[in-house]
Amino acid sequence: MMFQIFFSFGLISQVYSRPYCPPDFASHGAYCFLLTEKKSPGETADANCQARGASGFEVISWSDQNAAEDFLKSEKETEMVWLRGYVVYSKFRQTDTYFLWVSDLHPKIKNFKELDLEKGKGRCVAMDPRDDYHWKRQNCDKKQLKALCVIKLRRYKWRNLENVKERPAQDSDFVL
């Protein structure tokens, strides 16, 4: 556990930095993950996450992929889960297909075992724990899956750590 010592008015105060996830979320890597209990179509998966104060997960790096895999393994999840990505067709050349995240139009990594470009196969992206956590195209409207929701891991600084384990956190414990 990291800590710093501050001197103020001649008193010594310890401030500890501790990772924090909201209730029902689990910490893995730099993220707090939650798997929705309710299955839904891909088009509404992100709305289900937003209702919990989170967003659908976008895999930006291999460490993100590993964190998602670790979380799904810890949850013993064996069914596919929605990610927040799409496979889209070019308006100019129907044979051109692109993969993108909602917030990143130029993904740095791809983890499709094979990207099936056949039309009608769906445009939403899901992660499949039964196939070594590769990504697969799924029909956004017809397929019902759980959503992988995420919030960035927060770090709070705590003061006065005595009895922290015996009592719930209070607003006065946090240092901004």
UniProtKB/TrEMBL annotation:
Limits of the C-type lectin domain: 28-143
InterPro entries: C-type_lectin-like, C-type_lectin-like/link_sf, C-type_lectin_CS, CTDL_fold
Superkingdom in the source lineage: Eukaryota
The keyword Disulfide bond is assigned to this record: yes
Signal peptide segment: 1-17
Keywords: Disulfide bond, Signal
Name of the featured protein: C-type lectin domain-containing protein
Species per Swiss-Prot/TrEMBL record: Plakobranchus ocellatus
Organism placement in taxonomy: Eukaryota, Metazoa, Spiralia, Lophotrochozoa, Mollusca
